[in-house]
């Protein structure tokens, strides 16, 4: 059987798994291991159902996260793509950057796109793509309701892991200069 190499990653996969069409559904990857980042190529109902279980995202076309590094005005696309890109950059920041040479990591960190805007978050919410474990979690919604009722201002980014890490570093600095209120034992 001859294999047609279409190119890129999909062509490479097809060259290794050339008989996937003939072997039936039991030989295909489950949806959560083969999710497309673009709404044009994915089944939206399945995505909404399995969004929390997605393991592998295929960034189709030009919209690759690594192509956005250094972009002055990245075009994040639809809410679906935005959520996957945001997750990619979060994993990249927490798991890849720390393993790189510090100077190179700092260059890449400066090239990363800015945080997702409130308008992008609103659009994602309206399209049914909700960050259930982050800013759109029930806990944060409840805090927002309390803020509105009590007239308070709450920092929602304080629940973000990066913010927690910064707070821990500041606490260590205070303790190193004996300004934290804890006695250091020797």
From TrEMBL:
**Location of region: Disordered:** 160-186
Q: Secretion signal: which residues?
A: none
Q: Which InterPro entries match?
A: GNT1/Glycosyltrans_8, Nucleotide-diphossugar_trans
PANTHER family recorded: GLYCOGENIN SUBFAMILY MEMBER
User: How is this protein named in the record?
Assistant: Glycogenin-1
Q: What species was this sequence derived from?
A: Trichinella nativa
């Amino acid at each position: 059987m001859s294999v047609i190499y279409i190119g890129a990653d999909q062509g490479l996969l097809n060259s290794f798994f050339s008989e996937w069409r003939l072997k039936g559904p039991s030989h295909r990857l489950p949806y959560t291991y083969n999710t497309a980042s673009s709404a044009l190529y994915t089944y939206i109902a399945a995505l909404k159902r399995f969004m929390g279980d997605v393991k592998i995202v295929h960034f189709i076309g030009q919209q690759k996260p690594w192509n956005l590094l250094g972009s002055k005005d990245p075009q994040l696309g639809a809410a679906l793509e935005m959520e996957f890109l945001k997750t990619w950059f979060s994993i990249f920041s927490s798991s890849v950057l720390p393993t790189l040479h510090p100077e190179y990591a700092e260059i890449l960190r400066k090239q990363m796109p800015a945080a997702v805007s409130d308008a992008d978050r609103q659009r994602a919410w309206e399209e049914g793509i909700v960050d259930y474990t982050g800013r759109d979690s029930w806990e944060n919604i409840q805090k927002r309701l309390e803020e509105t009722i009590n007239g308070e201002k709450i920092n929602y980014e304080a629940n973000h892991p990066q913010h927690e890490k910064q707070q821990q570093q500041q606490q260590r600095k205070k303790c190193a200069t004996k300004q934290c209120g804890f006695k250091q034992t020797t």
